[in-house]
Design brief:
Chain lengths: 306, 265
């Protein structure tokens, strides 16, 4: 059975600019995929191709096996909240939601009213007078209210206050638990880390890393910080160990060892000293993300190679 | 076509259409109301007497002292066609290229609706507004003419009102085609108004040069007004050409919007 989203060699060029480059991405049913990357990395262009709003220059994108550009009906299974939100200013919030519901033919009005209540949307207000955050709440209700099989959310918490963000994350968690596939594009990595079970990192239009969130973190070097009871041993003793990437001495009694792979040799070596404390915090997604972006391999060179 | 999209298209035009409609009806009624005083004064024929015959014809002032000539010269030769064509251009542009430029089309097209259906529903909304305004201006002439002793036949009023509608719809169809091709709203306006100016020039001004008179037959203005519908009634050939050109332009718009990239704001 085809996955919710299948992108193969997806490429989009705008003149001489390559916005998305041979991108391969899959999203299976019930998966929450965090789609992370900075501004201009190609996230929104990729999402727009997934929704049939943007025609690929090469490659393909399929939603459950259907081409979203040719088969508009497949979008009935998708709830979408765009990053750049432009609502019809002439309508009220209620009229906006009603109109979307009519065009979807599948709105669960009870659930819509529940979402309106939980996110604090004011149905009687004119869209023209809404703040950015309140407009986003309307768009989120619109995306969720038909209980779609796939949610495509581009920076969904932009402009939301912390309480509403919290409520939205709870709603998202409930949708995921009910089997909804989610593609969550966000700058807020803690948010992605909280709900996503898979992550794809996009850099200059190409996926540079993808996989389960825990695996992405696990691939990273771990940083051990050892505080010795007396003077710290020479850093060279540790940098000679296989697995040691970098050894620094931030203070006379302290060593900071960046380590790759199983830590047994390091722990054995440290066991020979009188250690006051040893810490090794688990790398978070932000560290993982930054590691892919601090890789100084020149983008232009990589592009030329491809 | 989709009823919800048609409703939204009409709602988007409501305010401006009311203003346009009231202005057109007021213009029409005020022109008819001037007839008794101007006809009694006998000054109408003398007003154009000094002008060259070709220029009189180009400005629609032929037989200006007659009821039909008076209505043609003051309404149906230039002013109302211009208002209908500008209305068709502006409204259609706002609902297609304008909405796309503003980023409003994106959220709508992410819903399970086919792009040609969105365009067609909006086109129908503009056509409906043009139809209602053509009927309203026609009805205004029909109702006020007897009151002000302006003797004009109902068939002629209906025929020329239909011509106004088709001229407006021709421009709307042209805009639909240009927007479908992906042009931005300011470019669509520039091209559509250039075509409008060229079409009027070819119809009304080039014949003054004599040798270029045959070119007038290629102008939608000629198809709509060349047969003098106010006095001669409905023109099958002209109407057929307008219907065919509107259908062709609309088809271009509906086909080209299907697969292209939708612009972001």
């Amino acid at each position: 059975m085809p996955g919710a989203i299948e992108c193969r060699g997806l490429t989009k060029r705008f003149g001489r600019l390559t916005a998305v480059r041979e991108l391969d991405l899959s999203l299976d049913a019930g998966t929450v995929l965090g789609f992370v990357g900075p501004n201009g990395a190609g996230k929104s262009t990729t999402i727009r191709m997934m929704l049939g709003l943007c025609a690929p220059t090469a490659g393909s994108v399929r939603l459950w096996g259907a081409d979203p550009l040719r088969d508009h009906q497949v979008r009935a299974r998708v709830g979408y909240c765009p990053g750049e939100l432009r609502l019809d200013e002439r309508l009220t919030v209620a009229a906006t939601l009603t109109s979307w519901g009519k065009l979807r033919h599948s709105t669960d009005t009870g659930f819509r009213d529940e979402l309106v209540e939980r996110l604090g949307v004011e149905p009687g207000r004119q869209v023209r007078g809404l703040s950015t955050g309140n407009r986003r709440k309307v768009a989120l209700v619109g995306a969720l209210m038909s209980r779609p099989d796939l949610l495509v959310l581009d920076e969904p918490t932009n402009g939301l206050d912390p309480l509403v963000q919290e409520e939205f994350m709870a709603i998202l968690g409930e949708a995921a638990s009910a089997g909804t596939s989610v593609l969550l594009s966000s700058h807020v990595l803690s948010e992605v880390e909280r709900v996503a079970n898979e992550v794809a990192v996009i850099r200059e239009g190409a996926i540079v890393a993808s996989g389960p969130t825990s695996q992405l973190r696990g691939n990273l070097p771990q940083v051990f910080r050892a505080v010795f009871a007396g003077q710290a041993p020479p850093a060279a003793e540790f940098s000679a160990l296989p697995g040691a990437l970098q050894v620094d001495a931030p203070s006379p009694r302290e060593l900071k060892i960046s380590w790759s792979g199983a830590p047994r040799p390091l722990l054995a070596k440290l066991g020979g000293y009188d250690i006051e404390s040893l810490t090794a915090p688990e790398p978070d997604l932000e560290t993982a993300f930054l590691s892919y972006y601090r890789n100084d391999e020149p983008a232009a060179a990589r592009r030329a190679e491809s | 076509m989709n009823a919800e999209l048609l409703k939204r298209g009409l709602g988007a035009q409501l305010r401006s259409s009311l203003i346009w409609g009231i202005s057109m009806v007021a213009l029409t009624a005020s022109v008819v109301a001037l007839w008794p005083s101007l006809s009694r004064s006998g000054s109408l024929d003398s007003m154009v007497a000094g002008l060259p015959p070709d220029l009189v014809s180009a400005l629609g002032l032929t037989d200006f002292g007659s009821p039909a000539g008076f209505l043609n010269g003051n309404l149906y030769a230039v002013f109302l066609p211009l208002l209908f064509t500008v209305l068709g251009t502006v409204q259609m542009n706002a609902l297609t290229a304008g909405d796309e430029d503003a980023g409003r089309l994106e959220l709508l097209l992410a819903l399970p609706v086919a792009r040609p259906v969105v365009y067609l529903s909006r086109y129908a909304g503009v056509a409906l507004v043009l139809g209602v305004l053509a009927a309203a201006t026609g009805a205004t002439v029909g109702i006020t003419a007897p009151v002000f002793d302006l003797d004009i036949g109902a068939a002629g009023i209906a025929a020329v009102s239909l011509s106004m509608f088709w001229l407006g719809l021709f421009q709307a169809s042209l805009v639909l085609a240009l927007a479908g091709l992906g042009l931005r709203a300011p470019t669509v306006s520039t091209v559509a108004f250039s075509v409008l100016a060229a079409a009027y020039a070819v119809y009304a001004l080039l014949p003054l040069a004599g040798s270029a008179a045959d070119l007038a037959r290629w102008s939608p203005w000629h198809w709509a007004l060349g047969s003098q519908p106010l006095t001669q009634g409905f023109d099958v050939r002209g109407s057929a050409l307008l219907v065919a050109s509107c259908a062709l332009l609309t088809a271009v718009g509906l086909l080209t919007i299907r697969r292209r990239t939708i612009r972001t704001a």
